[in-house]
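Notebook entry, structure prediction.
Reason for the run: the old model in the group folder had no record of what sequence produced it. Starting over properly, with the input documented here first.
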Amino acid sequence: MKKILVTGGAGYIGSHTVVALKEAGFTPIIVDNFSNSKDTALEGIRSILGADVKCYHTDCADKVAFREVFEAETDLAGVIHFAAYKAVGESVEKPLAYFQNNVGSLLVLLELMQEFKVNNLVFSSSCTVYGVPDQLPVTEQTPTKAASSPYGRTKQMCEDILRDLSQAPGNEVKSILLRYFNPIGAHPSGKIGELPLGVPNNLVPFVTQTAAGWRDQLTVYGVDYDTPDGSCIRDYIYVGDLARAHVVAVQRQLDGKAETVEVFNVGTGHGNSVLEVVKAFEKVTGQPLRYRTGPRRVGDVPAIYADATKGANVLGFRTEVGLEEALATAWRWQQNLGAKPE
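New structure, fully documented this time:
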C-alpha cells in the first residue's frame, strides 16, 4: 500500500482524509503539531478504521524535526499538505504568525520533498484566493484579486510559490491545488468532526455548540449585505466529500495523469446564506437556535460559491451529500462530545 504523508492529519479535514485514504487502500502517515487539534482525533480515527495510523507530533515549520520524518519514512508516494492556521479573523489580528506558519511550513516541506525525491503534492488551498469576485460562481480561471485577509494572502503566496517552483529547471514536484470552499459536517459515525480549540471561528461548530448549550448564542455577522436575506453566502461542502476529493487527486498523480501544476475548485456549485444554514439546522434538529445579528466581520466577503465543472470533468469528482444531511452529521458529532470541556 502506497504511503501518503498527511500534514495536519489530526485536524478537521485532515482526519477525515486520513480515513478516506486508508479506506481507499493507501497507508496515511500523519504529521501534526496539535496546535489546533487534539489527540482524541487519533482515537476517533482508530475507532473508525479498527487500526492505528502512525502519527508524528512534529511542527512542519521546524525543518530539523520534519527532516526526521522524511528520514524515517523513506518510501513516500506523495504528500497532502493541510497544516496551516486557517481563521480569517485571527489572521487579521496575527498576520505575522500566519505568514510564518502557513508560508514557512510550505517552504520547509518543498525543500524536504526535493531532498528526498518525493514528487507528488496535493495542496490545501482556499476560495479566499479569489478575494471579492466580480462574478459568481467562480471558476478556476476567475482572476485572483487582493485577498480580504492575511489568511487569504498566505494561500495566494503558497500558490505562487508552487507555480514558480514548477518553472524551475530540474523541478520534479507536481502539485494539485485544491481550492475548497466551506467544509462542514462530520464522519457518519460521529467519531471525528470539527472541534476547534477555544471559541469557534467557523459557522457550523458555533451553531452546534450553541444548540448544545456550550455557547449562549450565535452571532450572525452582517445582515446588510447585497444578498437575498442580507447575510453572507458560502458554498458549504460536506467534509466527507472534500476528503474524497483529496484521494481522487492523489490517485490522479500516481496514475501519471497530472500536469506539473493543476488547480481545481472543490465545492457544491451553489451557495447558501448564513441564515439559510441556521434555518436548515433548526429543521434537522427540531429545536430553535438562539442567535442575534451583529456588525460585519473584518475579512468576510459578501458571497462566494464554486463552479465545480472542471473537477467533475477532469477528476470525475462530484459532491454527494447535501446541506441538511451534512448538518445532521455535525449535530451527531456534537451530541457525542457530551458536556462542554472545562
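Summary: The mean pLDDT is 95.
The old model has been moved to the deprecated folder.
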